[in-house]
């Protein structure tokens, strides 16, 4: 990994944005509260996260089709990345998030969390998967 410091991952969706943070050493990824995509104070809330955690990098999930081609949601995630880039002087890396939501759903189910409760946790769990993948890429 190029430098130590916390990283924040975002799983961007039309309704909710899952968020996860890691420790300064990049060892442990932890889910944070979900943000609402249409919240007029979205940038203010992200700024609060930046002020609290002082991240050195953002990872944003890039939804790809199983074939590797861009999905209809890819453009939305890229626009979210452009918005963050215009507001924060923090490096941004797009992370292929194929199957991150599926993986997160399975992990929550395996942990004994019912489907109704999992709906509230799935976006942040997917952000954890994106963060872990981004950290893994950076360690190469």
Keywords:
140 residues, Nucleotidyltransferase, domain 5, 5 strands, 4 helices, alpha/beta
What does this structure look like?
Helix 3 crosses helix 4. Helix content is 44%, strand content 24%. It has one domain: 2-Layer Sandwich (Nucleotidyltransferase, domain 5). The termini are close together. It is an alpha/beta fold. The protein contains four helices and five strands; from the N terminus they run E-E-E-H-E-H-E-H-H. The radius of gyration is 14 Å and the shape is globular.
Summarize the entry for a quick read.
The protein is of the alpha/beta class and 140 residues long. 44% of the residues lie in helices and 24% in strands. The protein has a single domain, classed as YqgF/RNase H-like domain (Nucleotidyltransferase, domain 5), CATH 3.30.420.
